[in-house]
Design brief:
The protein has 328 residues and is of the alpha/beta class. The protein is built from eleven helices and 13 strands. The protein folds into two domains: 172 residues, Peroxisomal Thiolase, Chain A, domain 1, CATH 3.40.47; 147 residues, Peroxisomal Thiolase, Chain A, domain 1. α4 links the parallel β4 and β5. Bound molecules: oxa(dethia)-CoA (UT7).
Length: 328
Amino acid sequence: MALKAAIKGVGGYVPDYVLTNQELETMVDTNDQWILERTGISERRILKGENMGTSYLGIQAVKQLLEKTNTNPEDIDLIICATVTPDMFFPATANIIAKGVGASNSFSYDIGAACSGFLYALSTGAQFIETGKYKKVVIVGADKMSSIVDYTDRTTCVLFGDGAGAVLLEPTEEEEGVMDFVLKSDGVGEEYLNMKAGGSRMPSSHETVDQRLHYIYQAGMHVFKYAVVSMADAAAEIMERNSLSGDDVAYLVPHQANKRIIDATAKRMNVGEDKVMMNIHKYGNTTAATIPLCLMDYENKLKKGDNLVLAAFGGGFTWGSAYIKWAY
Ligand code: UT7
């Protein structure tokens, strides 16, 4: 009997500090109406405090996941963390999370695929389960976007927030869990969405700091054009090859970058608003954390056997979708 990787639990964490559209109005030339109409965002969470990185968010999410699923941290085989805001270049943020939760028998590593990171990590983790090699794999999506947001740039600072979400994958012999995925990337996005300095091509220097090159750069309209088509295409492709109609889908679980991109994907899938997981209004775009934070917020509405379509688009460009049959 072929093994499948079932999601057996969800955990999540967002920091306490709420950065509202009204507060942003005092920082840059923007207004609540513009932000709400163009993006769907009202507020986002920000991690405050010295020496607090993405691992802090991830540790809180994984601790909650382990508690909810009654999992002994020493039984975890593997932790994969999707992030674009690692605590440091190395060690991997996943290593720091593993230590922080007491997963002393695990190995762990990071995956960087920007806003598609959780989908990439979930698909990768599922392979380790399906081969029968490992029994407990934790997938974390975590980003402290406030660490790379330029709060003088109104075109990006209104979009992003901090957060983390995590799921536990375990083997099952039932026809459920990660059923299929579509993953894509093309490198075309480099010029439209990037953080130029601090890497090997342009190491940090006084000049890079003076030129504000350690922040997110986004040509929003260009990214929007690609995102709105690609996320819908990926969702449509996975539905078609698994013979799913809109009626068969319990929920679309979309990356939360812009409500207009999400609406276009839902329309293409032929699913109504009641079947779209949405929390962009309260968290903004938390990059790798958006999808698991949606699962956390909607967990109590989900039933065993529900068909979910996950879809994402982000820097790279990277994009994709996954078909999940909910397992509890
Ligand atoms: O998650 C990773 C992938 N990222 C995405 O999927 C994001 C994709 N892009 C978007 O969601 C949208 O492009 C944005 C929300 C970033 C921007 O929305 P837009 O409708 O594409 O606006 P725009 O960039 O075309 O700007 C329209 C106008 C401009 O003014 P002018 O040139 O028409 O006078 C901007 O300067 O809105 C202005 N503007 C703002 N005004 C008030 C840009 N940002 C703001 C702001 N407040 N915060």
